[in-house]
Every structure is written in C-alpha cells, then in structure tokens.
Automatic annotation (TrEMBL):
UniProt source species: Sutcliffiella tianshenii
Pfam families assigned: DUF2624
Name of the protein in question: DUF2624 domain-containing protein
InterPro entries (alphabetical): DUF2624 (IPR020277)
Amino acid sequence: MNIYQQIVNKKLHNISPEELLNYSAQYNISLTSDQAKKVSALLQSKKVNVFNTSERIQLMKEVARITGHETAKKVNQLFMEFTK
C-alpha cells in the first residue's frame, strides 16, 4: 500500500460525524446527523482498505443498512473517484 492509500484510509478511519456531514453537503449526498454518527462509528470500528474492491463492497453494504441503498451508492461512487 502506497503513502496516498495509507493517508486516505487513515482519514476515513478517523473521520468525525461533522466532517461526514460537511462532505455530504459538498458532494450532494443526503445524510442525517444520526446517520453520520453511525457511519463515523462504523468507519472507526472497521479498519477497511477502501482501495480493496471486496472490502469496499462489504463496507458499502453496511453503510447501506444505515443510510439506505441510494446514499450508499453515491458514497461508493465518491470512493471510486478518490481511489482512481
């Protein structure tokens, strides 16, 4: 894993609910405060490598349980943009 991947993964594992809400507004992704708290807790509890497709897909399934399918789909598209 290169340094860029390490930085992105570390940022995701330490992201706050407030940061998630800011990003959701910036990228036009519907997210409530409660959902942001739950997703933040999920990201902090699971050390997932978002550059690994199978790990990211599993994470998105869990995010979909919290936020709904459409929001998780948008989040996955955003991850794919960052992981190119």
